Structures are given as C-alpha cells and as structure tokens.
Amino acid sequence: DAKTTQPPSMDCAEGRAANLPCNHSTISGNEYVYWYRQIHSQGPQYIIHGLKNNETNEMASLIITEDRKSSTLILPHATLRDTAVYYCIVRASNSGYALNFGKGTSLLVTP
Amino acid sequence: GAVVSQHPSWVICKSGTSVKIECRSLDFQATTMFWYRQFPKQSLMLMATSNEGSKATYEQGVEKDKFLINHASLTLSTLTVTSAHPEDSSFYICSAPDRKDDEQFFGPGTRLTVL
Fold it and tell me: Cβ–Cβ contacts within 10 Å for residue A98, how many?
C-alpha cells in the first residue's frame, strides 16, 4: 500500500466545511483512496473511496487531483458529531486484505 | 451497510486470567476477519488475520500462543487473551470484509482492562 501523509490535527467551526488533505505521492495506478473515521472509543467507520474521479455521497465529498498524488475529504457542513480521527488509506481494491492505518488527522469541530 | 458486532464491549479482569472476545458478522459471511489493537492516543495496529477453517496468521511481534484466534464459522471469530497482564490492556477491534461490497466493516471494539 502506498504511504499517506496527513496533518495531525485540524479545527473547524460548526456549520462550516471541513477540508481534510491527504498526500499520497507514491500511489500506483490500481490503488484507490479510502477514507475512514474513528469517533472516540468506537470502531472505524467507512466514509468514501475513489480511484480518480471525484466522488460524493451522503456523508462527504472526495476530491482527487488529476495526478492522483493528493486528495481532499470535504465534510460540507461539519457538526459536533463529526469530531473524530480521519484516516486516509491507499490500497488496491481488494477486500481480502487488512487496512493499514496511519496516524490520521484529528478533527475538532467547535461550536 | 453490513454490521459487525463484538462482545463484550468492555471487560475488566485480574492479571493472569484469560479473556475471550467475540466478533460476529451479523448479515454476511466472512471467511476472513481481522483483529486490531489500539493503545491510547495511537492508531490501530493489525494483530492477526483470522481465517475460517484454518490457522490464523499473526503479524510480526504478536505472540500466537498468547492471543489465540478461532474462526469456527463463517460469522464468528474469537480472540482469547491468555494469561492477561496489565500491558495487554487495550482497545481490541475486529473487522470483516464484505466481498460483495468490497468494503470492510468494523466492530464497535472491546475495551480490555487488566488489573
């Protein structure tokens, strides 16, 4: 799996968009970008994933640069419940393998 | 999405005793399940891969005789921490891939405290 780099922490005001960056400059052509989050003392939760096109679902949007070396997870209207550690993971689309969690970004949404 | 449950959600035990943690896939079958461990303020670390009908595979540095894994059915994997010591106190999380959806689903975790 390609290595990812994320800022250790970010703050965001409630109601504003939270933009979480991730660098993955060594990503290979068959690797997807996955985002998970972990709310304190809970198991990780899947958010979204993509290969090269931008993706959107009910939770978030994923913007992947054209060269695929970086991506941004966007929570359009952050709420206090979005306070969590967000993990960007790059891997081939093969559910038979475990996920390699880095340190992630600790997002704090403030009132 | 698919649901993975863990039991118990938390457990406190005395040093030297054994503790069993169950991981169940509730609405799909999982021939493979993964066990992770997470210490405070750290990320999840993969401990082992549980394979239905065969032996588990362990990550480097994880003692297979201490962390016994049994995957007896397509919906259940168990992790037994044998002769637990305070340094085994941690948050244990399992996950199971749903091949149909090509996603991994995580259990809610089990908080183990060894006194």
Answer: 21
